C-alpha cells in the first residue's frame, strides 16, 4: 500500500510539473509559429538531459551519504514553493486584467517552463524510486517517465489550443488564468501538506487491534 501511494504521489507530482511546463510552452509556441519544431526540440532535449542526468547521478553517487545535505535543501522547499506561488499569482492577475487591445508580449511563460530547484528534485527522486523498484531496467524506466512527461506536455498544449478557439481569449489571458490556478494549487499544498505529517501515526493507531476482552 505504501509503495502504491508513493508511486501515485510521484506520478501526480510529475504530472502537475508537466502541466505547468506545457502551459508555458503553449504560449511560447503560439508566438513562434514558424519555429515550433525547433523550440519544442530544444525544450525536449533539455528535459531529456535533466532526466538522464538524474539517472547518471544515481548510478555514480550513493545519495545516502549526502542525506543531511538533501534534507537541508528540502526544508527550504516550502519557502521556494510559497515564493513561486506568490509570483505566479501576482503575474497571473496582471495578465488576466490585461485588455484584449494590448498586444504586448509577456515573458511570464519563463516562470512556467524553467524548472525550479524543487521540480528538479522531484525528477531526481522519481528517478531514484524507479531505480529502486526496477533495478535491472532503471534507465529504461526513467526514459518512460520522461516520455510520460512529454506526452502530458503535448496533451496540455492541445487542450490549451481548444480552449483558445472555444473561448476566443488571448494567449496572454489564458496563460494568466492557468497561472492563477497553479498558484492556488501551490499555496494550498504549502498550507495543507504539513497537516498530514502525522497521518501515518493516526493510520497505525486506527488499524491497531488490541486484545478484546469479552465480558458477559
Blueprint of the fold:
Blueprint: H1 2-31, H2 36-60, H3 67-75, H4 77-97, H5 109-113, H6 117-133, H7 138-167, H8 171-192, H9 199-207
What labels would you give this structure?
216 residues; mainly alpha; 9 helices
Overview of the structural elements:
Helix 1 (2-31) packs across helix 6 (117-133), helix 1 (2-31) packs across helix 7 (138-167) and helix 1 (2-31) runs antiparallel to helix 8. With 216 residues, the protein is mainly α. Helices cover 78% and strands 0% of the residues. It starts with a helix and ends in a 9-residue tail after the last helix. The chain is built from nine helices and no strands. Mean pLDDT is 77; it is low at 210-216.
How many strands? Answer: 0
> What would the principal axes of the Cα set say about the shape?
globular
Largest sheet: none
> What class, by secondary structure content?
mainly alpha
Q: What letter string, H or E per element, gives the SSE order?
A: HHHHHHHHH
Helix percent band? over 70%
Individual helix count? 9
Low-confidence stretches: 210-216
Strand proportion: under 5%
Give the integer mean of the pLDDT values: 77
Beginning-to-end CA distance, first to last residue: 38 Å
Radius of gyration: 21 Å
Summarize this entry quickly.
By secondary structure, the protein is mostly helical. The protein has nine helices and no strands.
